Amino acid sequence: MKKIYIIGLGLIGGSFARDLRRHMPKTRLFGIDTSEQHLQEALALVLVDEVATVGDLSDADMVVLAVPVDTAVQILPTVLDNIDDNTIVVDMGSTKQAICEAVVSHPKRRNFLACHPIAGTEFSGPNAAIDQLFKGKTNIVCEVEKTAPKLQETVLNLFKEMGMRIRYMDPISHDKHIAYVSHLSHISAFMLGKTVIEKEKNERDIFDMAGSGFASTVRLAKSNPVTWTSIFKQNKTNVLETLEEYISNLTHFKTLLEAENYQGIHDEMKNTNHIKEILNGIN
Amino acid sequence: MKKIYIIGLGLIGGSFARDLRRHMPKTRLFGIDTSEQHLQEALALVLVDEVATVGDLSDADMVVLAVPVDTAVQILPTVLDNIDDNTIVVDMGSTKQAICEAVVSHPKRRNFLACHPIAGTEFSGPNAAIDQLFKGKTNIVCEVEKTAPKLQETVLNLFKEMGMRIRYMDPISHDKHIAYVSHLSHISAFMLGKTVIEKEKNERDIFDMAGSGFASTVRLAKSNPVTWTSIFKQNKTNVLETLEEYISNLTHFKTLLEAENYQGIHDEMKNTNHIKEILNGIN
Lengths: 283, 283
What we know:
Two copies of one chain form a homodimer.
Chain A lengths: L2 E5 L3 H13 L4 E5 L3 H9 L5 E2 L10 E4 L3 H14 L5 E4 L5 H6 L9 E6 L20 E5 L6 H13 L3 E5 L1 H30 L11 H7 L6 H10 L1 H23 L3 H11 L2 H5 L4
Parallel strand pairs in A: 1-2, 1-4, 2-3, 4-5, 5-6, 7-8
Antiparallel strand pairs in A: 6-7
Helix pairs in contact in A: 6-9
């Protein structure tokens, strides 16, 4: 591939650019972003070689869409309108149903591969981009059968070279399950952070008392609000379901504590302890 | 100090023993535990030199109480009954009000220093003990004025040699604040783990989709149920208050999402983002 365009030069797009530099040193990288500051940072970091616009995509071999998920849904049809027959377009979004629906009847549907690399940190912007972010991570690919075999092959090989494991899933199942194992964690962390900040705002030294356990549990509350608002918007129904169940479990725990049912509290925790084995497989 | 007795040879007691080996290589260490298995493990790991009982404490220079907090409250009076006038007894418990009240009128109150080193991991037992667990950690000391100055001086110097920062606080404030910055995090993690496990129990491969964010948020759900039941029991009132506020914040978030108030959701997250600066001070 001679020319790759990256739309969205944040943590994900920027980290993908870093890996492209490693695996495709001869490829020319073009950056598209609505933020002039991000474009300048990306150039300064040499994440990309040139700034471009969506109108330039006709000579792209590959286009990587790494913008907030609601923006991705809006611009993907236009991106497909602008590419050549042999261009492959991949997205990196945390929701998959809406984006697949947005292009279901597009004449260039076969040029698009819907992806979700389960990779990220709590930081954002071009400066947050890191090398080998995707190494050892799972990349969930949806509706692979709708992408032209030759085009998908090239990009799946690239993902594997970057160290990703590929899994295939339909977009509806993806959005349902990711709500539990990713989206709910973010709400849990944000609201934990809020609860503690609200309570302790007049007592500046209290965070001296916080240890590594609090830091770990609340870490995701550092995440980008724009990115996450758009994820919750697109996955509203599933996220609401997880949130209802989470609140219900917390309320049950509270009821046990009010009733001083300490055996019940012990058993709740004991039964959840086998998360140990589940987590052993996660980096 | 020639002889130090450690009651409770789990993560905290065992890690303290490891640090004592480093800083006081000539001191003989005695272990007391209700678990025969833990005693044998502690001997095999050379955490302690000998097994002992509470009846042996009369020749102790120092006694370290590192058992679940409800056990600590029960046995501390007996421990004090059995020691010499020059023995210092310290506890390591995550709650401080009940233990201070339990010995408020004890004739040997001056021999006790109420401590809470904010240190730990999600693991437990003698095998979980690690070197330098306490290095760089905060140790909250309560009612320091009730401990004989000469006795407290020795042990506070030891804590400083182990790398701990000492902070002084009254037990009521300690229990109130620690509920927010530690106890609530554990409930949040346990119930997140429960919610996801319940939903995904029939779908074995779903945890392939979980990334480092989920792992971080749910990490504390690996913690010991016995330890934590006793903490929630002793700090019931404060924990219930934090839990009510947490549930209320989650419910508010859910209401915003149901109403599709995405600006409101964005602002909730944006306002919590400054947890970044707060966490910068935490290891």
